[in-house]
Each structure stands twice: as C-alpha cells, then as structure tokens.
C-alpha cells in the first residue's frame, strides 16, 4: 500500500512468474507501471516489481523495459541487464527487513536510474557504432604496439639473464683467483718467517766463524775456511738472491709488468729452488 501511495503510476496484479534458476513457475503479486526517470527519448521507464513468496524477508525482483517503441536498453549499464531487463541496486543487495520496504526500493531505483538512464534511442546506438568504428583501429594499433613492447621486454629480460650468468661466472673465477692469491700470500709469509729464522742462524754462524769479537763492516767480507764453509755460503747467498728475485717479481706484478699466472709460476719455481738451498744450509749447519 505504501508503494502504491508513493508511486500512483504503479498498479498491482497477480501473474505467473518463472524463476530463472530452476525454471519453476508460480503466481506472484507484482506492481507494474512507470517510474519518473528521464531518458533520451523523453519518456518514463516501464518497471515490473515482483514480490517474492518469502517477502518481506527477501528482496523483490525488478525488471526494467523501455516505454517508447524506438527506445532500447543501453549496453554495459551498471544496474540493468540489456538482454533481460533484470535490475540490481545497492538497496536490493543490502535488503534487510524491517529497514527495507517496497517504497524505499522504488525511490532508490528512481535515483540510480536518473543518474544512469537505462534507455536510449536508435541514434545513440548509431553513435556508439560510429565510436567503435573510430576507436577500433586505434585499439588494434595499441594492441600491436603493446605486443611489440612485450616481445622487446622479454628479449631484454633474456639478454639480462644471460649477462647475469656471465657475470656470475666471472665473479666465481675472481673469487677462485683471490683464494689462490691468499694462499700464495700465506705461503710467502711463512717463507719470510723461515728466512728471518735462517738469517739469524747464518748470522750466529758468521759470528762463530769470525770469532764473535768484531762485526763485519759494510763492504767487508771473509774467506771460507774449508770446502763445507764455501758450500754453506754459496747456498745461503743463493737463498738470499732468490728472495730478492721474488721481491722484484712482486714489484713487477704490482706495476702490471707481469701477469698473475706468470708471477705464480715463477714464484713456485723459485720457492722450490730456495727450499733446496735452505735445506743444504740447515743440513751443513747441523753437522
């Protein structure tokens, strides 16, 4: 009664209603008529409000139809299905008795259909067709450009992945070389410690040979007393010469005059030779 009082253009009736979900048909009370909704055809909108069997606990079902013969339901309407005319609204979606009623639903439909008219004339359809004709080629070009950009981006990603793999390989090679250099450095430090120790041993031996009274001045030498002493001095001199050679190679490496591989190869060879000379010195000194 409140709906008919607020919207006298609607009239009640009882007609068969077919549920779209299961196809069953029941006789339902409904209200048909016009809602004062402005359209491009200057006519109202014809609506049918079906009251369900479990009303007022369930929301009514509303269908909208164009009143004028030349009018049509607009496509892509946010609240009206163009093919069936079935209408949805926030009011119906949030239906809650007793806060919701038929008059409130009709007023809500009038408001949203006024903001978004559901019907339009044939000229609107023609205008939409012209817009599609204009925008269609533009959309096609945009899709082609997007496809090219996507393909280019994929190529760039593949190239960057390959470069990343190469850089990772180089990083592993640099890490291995650094570890090898670190081992060589530790080996050289150990050799230096042995050199200091052996130098001390030779200095003590020289002190005993010279009688321990006087130290040799710069440029002053001594004469070997026997064959063993001569060999001992020769081995010690060779060992010291190898140390100087290694120092010179280190300076050349720092200046970039020799490569790392050449430096390591020469240092290994000199270290082996120095080991034999040092061993001869230690063996002769122990005798």
Automatic annotation (TrEMBL):
Entry keywords, A to Z: Coiled coil, Endosome, Protein transport, Transport
InterPro entries cross-referenced by the UniProt entry: ESCRT-I_UEV_domain (IPR052070), ESCRT_assembly_dom (IPR037202), SB_dom (IPR017916), UBQ-conjugating_enzyme/RWD (IPR016135), UEV_N (IPR008883)
Subcellular localization(s) per the UniProt record: Endosome
Name listed for the protein in its UniProt record: Protein ELC-like
One term of GO molecular function: ubiquitin binding
GO biological process: endosome to lysosome transport; protein transport
Main location: other
Coiled-coil zones: 164-198
Family label: Belongs to the ubiquitin-conjugating enzyme family. UEV subfamily.
GO cellular component term of the entry, any: ESCRT I complex
């Amino acid at each position: 009664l409140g709906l008919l009082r607020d919207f006298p253009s609607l009239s009640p009736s009882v007609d068969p209603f077919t549920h779209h979900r299961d196809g069953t048909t029941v006789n339902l009370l409904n209200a048909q008529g016009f809602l004062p909704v402005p359209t491009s055809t200057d006519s109202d909108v014809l609506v049918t409000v079906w009251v369900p069997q479990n009303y007022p606990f369930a929301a009514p079902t509303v269908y909208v139809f164009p009143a004028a013969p030349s009018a049509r339901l607009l496509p892509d309407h946010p609240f009206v299905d163009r093919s069936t005319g079935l209408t949805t609204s926030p009011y119906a979606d949030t239906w809650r008795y007793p806060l919701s009623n038929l008059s409130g639903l009709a007023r809500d439909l009038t408001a949203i259909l006024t903001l978004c008219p559901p019907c339009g004339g044939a000229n609107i359809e023609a205008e939409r067709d012209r817009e599609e004709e204009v925008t269609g080629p533009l959309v096609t070009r945009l899709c082609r450009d997007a496809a090219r950009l996507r393909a280019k981006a994929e190529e760039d990603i593949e190239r960057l992945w390959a470069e990343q793999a190469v850089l990772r390989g180089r990083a592993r090679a640099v890490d291995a070389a650094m570890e090898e250099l670190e081992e060589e450095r530790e080996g050289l430090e150990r050799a230096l410690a042995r050199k200091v120790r052996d130098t001390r041993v030779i200095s003590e031996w020289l002190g005993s040979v010279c009688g321990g009274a006087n130290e040799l001045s710069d440029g002053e030498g001594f004469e070997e007393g026997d064959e063993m002493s001569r060999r001992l001095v020769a081995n010690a001199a060779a060992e010291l010469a190898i140390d100087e050679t290694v120092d010179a190679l280190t300076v050349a490496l720092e200046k970039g005059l020799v490569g790392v591989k050449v430096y390591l190869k020469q240092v290994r060879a000199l270290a082996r030779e120095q080991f034999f000379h040092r061993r001869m010195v230690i063996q002769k000194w122990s005798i």
